[in-house]
């Protein structure tokens, strides 16, 4: 399974790019999965739902299944640490390409999503694991190639070539 990331400051457009990038990659016949890091807590179920009640009652894991999807929720209790990226990856089914959103300090190669209007410095200037920048405008002093943030097909072509996936 090839692994490639998208990183950047909050508000730069990482999620917007990834949701355009996935169809561009699957159109090439690739099976793609994603891992998204959330800095804050999140919930995929809600009060009043059976799965939520199971978790609130103290279940460590709750698996919800239907004819269309299944989801496994694992509650980190007490002082359990957040899982590392390799631990999370081990829980996934194999695919052609795993896209990682966030996890900017992990050692996989990444594209930095950068917009001048966010007002943050270019991470690529300090991180050799960033192999390109995707932006909607000029990127002053970029040490790596700059891709058009609005051209998902061009970004997909770069990722496919960089990961050696053909197509």
Automatic annotation (TrEMBL):
GO BP term, pick one: Mo-molybdopterin cofactor biosynthetic process
Source organism, top-level taxon: Bacteria
Pfam families reported for this sequence: MobB (PF03205)
Molecular function terms, GO-annotated: GTP binding
Record domain Molybdopterin-guanine dinucleotide biosynthesis protein B (MobB): where: 3-136
InterPro entries hit by this protein: MGD_biosynthesis_adapter, MobB_dom, P-loop_NTPase
PANTHER family registered for this protein in UniProt: MOLYBDOPTERIN-GUANINE DINUCLEOTIDE BIOSYNTHESIS ADAPTER PROTEIN, MOLYBDOPTERIN-GUANINE DINUCLEOTIDE BIOSYNTHESIS ADAPTER PROTEIN-RELATED
Protein name as annotated: Molybdopterin-guanine dinucleotide biosynthesis protein B
Gene symbol of the encoding locus: mobB
């Amino acid at each position: 399974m090839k692994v490639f990331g998208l990183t950047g400051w909050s508000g730069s457009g990482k999620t917007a790019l990834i949701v355009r990038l996935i169809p561009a990659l699957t159109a090439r016949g690739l099976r793609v999965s994603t891992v998204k890091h959330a800095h804050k807590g999140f919930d995929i179920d809600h009060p009043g739902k059976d799965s939520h009640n199971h978790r609130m009652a103290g279940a460590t894991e709750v698996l919800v299944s239907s004819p269309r999807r299944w989801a496994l929720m694992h509650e980190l209790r007490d002082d359990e640490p957040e899982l590392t990226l390799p631990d999370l990856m081990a829980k996934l089914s194999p695919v052609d390409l795993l896209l990682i959103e966030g996890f900017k300090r992990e050692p996989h190669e990444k594209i930095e999503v950068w917009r001048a209007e966010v007002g943050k410095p270019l991470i690529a200037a300090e991180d050799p694991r960033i192999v390109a920048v995707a932006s909607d405008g000029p990127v002053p002093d970029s040490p790596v190639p700059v891709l058009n943030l609005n051209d998902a097909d061009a970004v997909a072509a770069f990722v496919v070539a960089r990961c050696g996936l053909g197509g």
